[in-house]
# Entry
Amino acid sequence: MNDFKFKIDGKDYTANVVEGESGKLNVTVNGKSYEVEVPGHVAAKPTVHHIKPAVAAAAPAAAPVAAPRKASAGANAVTAPLPGTITSIEVKVGDPVKAGQTVIVMEAMKMANNITAEVDGTVKNILVQQGAQVQTGDALIEIG
# Structure
């Protein structure tokens, strides 16, 4: 994920770019999302959880995604501001984070939404997985 700030004809714009499936880019400019194809752009190699078998007689049922858990007492939890699907987790357990830093990207209402840390600290626990469906107020990440 990359964030960009730029001006066109003196007007400020902010863009967030996330690589999607099949080499397409999900670009959010000033809150409006677009799916973009860039000629000559080569998609990053997929991670292990994106690899699909080359030949399969029948597609196996998708593994269930664990439901979000509640944060432990005393931890600062980053919570879902609205219902949606987790599309990207930008941090790992043990990573230092700053207030305002994007820690999760979730899709809600057909838009990519950056979910940010509210406090400085260290990621103590990640309570969701990519692909999880979350509801408003669900704890996503614990920061200690």
Observations:
- The radius of gyration is 17 Å.
- DSSP finds no helices and twelve strands in the chain.
- The chain has two domains: 2-47, 76-143.
- Residues 80 and 137 are 5 Å apart (CA to CA).
